[in-house]
Write a structure and sequence with these properties.
The complex is a heterodimer of chains A (about 220) and B (about 425). Chain A is of the alpha/beta class and about 220 residues long. Helices cover about 35% and strands about 30% of the residues of chain A. Classes of the chains: A alpha/beta (about 220), B alpha+beta (about 425). The structure holds adenosine-5'-triphosphate and magnesium ion.
Chain lengths: ~220, ~425
């Protein structure tokens, strides 16, 4: 089995304000090195699915497998460690720690993982920043750079521990077309050159068309995959 | 790479970003601890001074022969009235002597007791002091002056002359300062002392003492045991009182009871003699801790407040930390850390301020007739209280930080990320 990430029969309900079956029997697998996008109408449950796949949301039925291991039902500290080590995340909003420098922001998850020395982590972080062509911003405070730059810092941070899969919830949603294209190129390169798996939610059909696979969602179900 | 270090860095950065609120919260702790150190140093200094005043002068056990009516009236000896109810009117004590019977063997027995530091004999004599036309009632106590100096700090209370002078002067007397003032007497003068049976003794004044208790200073004087025995026309074994100093003061009640049983004498222990004294100490301690704890509770609310505010403002940071793999306990640790930083910084500052204030008070002149050896306000610089103060600060800030930190631990990152 060469699936990096696999969802089996995932169902999710929101109970408040009224019971609402938001995800219905979702089955999905992302292979190693695959660049996949998720598309679908607003409100069809894309973000909800992504939170489950990212292990942050544990309130669902079904099974979630990560590189051949069952993740569903693990305790929260264990899930934190899995997120730290194997998963990368980029959101529509950048979520940088504004009092820290760009470099410090990128280093944080690696410091948490605590397997490398501070010096090694710094080198890794600088290398990620170089890949994203923002190494000149390393010493700047995170709240003193532009939106597009912030988004790239967030991508660098998501990559710092060399995850097996990068997930994104509309990572280009807030960017102008030039910056969006930029981010797409970076993803494409990571997928082609480093064999990174990507699962990106997007509303941009142009973006999606150029990836390996489009997963189409509607009304809490996977329509085409 | 140490995981904890990155959490500390985050905690510090958060606090520095809110430096003014952080400083305010820390100042709250500073006031609490500063007040505690100042108060406790001063209050315990005061307690110790008052304790010393009493303890130094007061024997741990005072043994004397109390004149009291016999508990067993003669009628009880008659078997014929055994089951009757006897009413005896107007019971009077039997004519009795003040002296302790067989005092000298008893003293050497007590001195041999391993719990007893020393047993000091005294001879009390009721007298009248006469100088010119003035006459005053009082008590002359015959003592072994050098032993009193050694065991009851007697030298501290001598305001004119030296204890050695009493020992070396034949028929010398150490007069209470009140008597000397009333009768306008100077050291070197002679004072006539009339004993109860009318004999007049001229005694040479070798010095004055001041105990701080007016009643005593206005009536009591000291002389040698020999001179006092002459005043009461007693033999060399005529002893009215024995004062004990013990190695461990807490044994005083037990030892007093056993002496009463063994020798059929009255033995008053120091707790019995100064029962009301403890109350004052307790109340001063109560005030100290009530004020300090109140201030610390206020400080605790300050910390609770700033942490709640920080958690609210840093919700996004918390969410992203959790999303990128920091666990709930990591996040909780960050906020506990912040509370502790505030507590430790505020506490150390408070400690310094408290120690400074205590030294300041220590330097303020404070002179009182009652305490001839005291020249400045009494302050107790006990490092133990500094340790308690810091512990206090850390424990109270920990509790203040605990609830907010628990809230941070439970933040659901999905909710926050969705909320944007
Ligand atoms: N906390 C919640 N409680 C109840 N219903 C919710 C909650 N969060 C989302 N929903 C509902 O679940 C559905 C799916 O939401 P979700 O955010 O997954 O949509 P989405 O596909 O990401 O949409 P968009 O493209 O606009 O981001 C929506 O109808 C939304 O109203
Ligand atoms: Mg969405």
């Amino acid at each position: 089995m060469n699936s990096v990430l696999e969802a089996r029969h995932i169902d999710k309900y929101f109970r408040k304000p009224v019971e609402f079956h938001v995800l219905k029997d979702i089955n999905l697998a992302v292979k190693r090195g695959e660049f996949a996008t998720v598309m679908g109408k607003s409100g069809c449950g894309k973000s909800t699915l992504l939170y489950i796949l990212s292990t942050m949301d544990t309130d669902y039925n079904g099974e979630l497998w990560l590189k051949g291991e069952l993740v569903t039902g693990l305790e929260s500290d264990r899930l934190s460690h899995i997120r730290n080590k194997y998963l990368g995340f980029v959101f529509q909003f950048h979520y940088l720690l504004s009092e820290f420098t760009v470099l410090e922001n990128v280093m944080l998850p690696a410091k948490k993982l605590a397997v490398k020395t501070a010096e090694e982590i710094r080198e890794d972080a600088m290398q990620k920043l170089r890949i994203l062509e923002i190494d000149h911003l390393a010493k700047k405070r995170a709240n003193r750079i532009s939106g597009g730059e912030k988004q790239r810092v967030a991508i660098a941070r998501a990559l710092i521990n060399d995850p097996i899969i990068l997930m994104g919830d509309e990572p280009t949603g807030n960017l102008d077309s030039q910056n969006a294209e930029n981010v797409f190129q970076i993803f494409k390169k990571l997928s082609d050159e480093q064999g990174l798996s990507l699962l990106i939610v997007t509303h941009d059909l142009d973006f999606a068309k150029r990836t390996d696979r489009i997963i189409s969602m509607g009304d809490g179900k996977i329509l085409v995959s | 790479m140490n995981q904890r270090k990155v959490l500390v860095t985050i905690a510090k950065t958060h606090l520095l970003s809110k430096i003014r609120q952080t400083a305010t919260a820390a100042l709250g702790v500073t006031f609490g601890i500063g007040a505690y150190i100042t108060l406790v140093s001063f209050m315990t200094g005061l307690n110790k001074m008052l304790d010393d005043m009493i303890l130094n002068q007061t024997p741990h056990v005072h043994i004397y022969n109390e004149i009291q009516p016999s508990e067993k009236q003669p009628i009880a000896l008659y078997s014929e009235f055994e089951n009757a109810m006897n009413v005896v009117h107007s019971v009077k004590p039997k004519q009795n002597q003040n002296r302790i019977h067989d005092a000298l063997p008893m003293i050497s027995h007590l001195k041999g007791d391993p719990n007893v530091l020393s047993a000091l004999p005294q001879v009390r004599a009721q007298v009248f002091y006469v100088a010119g036309s003035i006459e005053m009632g009082g008590v002359v106590t015959g003592v072994n002056i050098m032993e009193e100096v050694e065991y009851f700090n007697f030298r501290d209370y001598i305001v004119a002359g030296k204890p050695e002078d009493l020992k070396n002067t034949n028929n010398g007397i150490l007069l209470g300062i009140g008597i000397a003032e009333t009768m306008s007497l100077k050291v070197g003068d002679r004072v006539q002392v009339t004993s109860t049976n009318g004999t007049v003794f001229p005694l040479k004044i070798v010095g004055f003492f001041q105990s701080g208790l007016a009643d005593i200073d206005n009536s009591r004087s000291y002389t040698t045991i020999k001179t006092a025995q002459k005043l009461v026309e007693g033999a060399a074994n005529y002893i009215t009182d024995v004062n004990l100093k013990l190695k461990d003061i807490s044994l005083a009640p037990t030892i007093a009871r056993s002496i009463e049983q063994q020798f059929n004498l009255r033995a008053v222990d120091i707790n019995e003699a100064n029962a009301q004294f403890e109350t004052g100490t307790t109340i001063r301690n109560l005030i100290t801790y009530a004020v300090s704890i109140t201030l610390l509770i206020v400080a605790g609310f300050g910390i609770y407040n700033i942490l709640n505010m920080l958690i609210y403002e840093k919700m996004n940071d918390i969410a992203i930390l959790k999303a990128t793999g920091f666990s709930g306990s990591d996040v909780q640790w960050i906020f506990i850390m912040q509370a502790l930083i505030i507590g430790i910084v505020g506490g150390i500052l408070g400690l310094l301020i408290g120690i400074g204030l205590a030294h300041l008070i220590d330097g303020i002149p404070f002179e009182t007739e009652a305490l001839p050896t005291v020249t400045t306000y009494p302050v107790n610089h006990n490092p133990w209280y500094y340790a308690i103060g810091i512990t206090f600060a850390i424990v109270s800030t920990f509790f203040a930080g605990y609830l907010p930190s628990l809230r941070a631990k439970r933040v659901d990152p999905v909710k926050i990320i969705r909320g944007q």
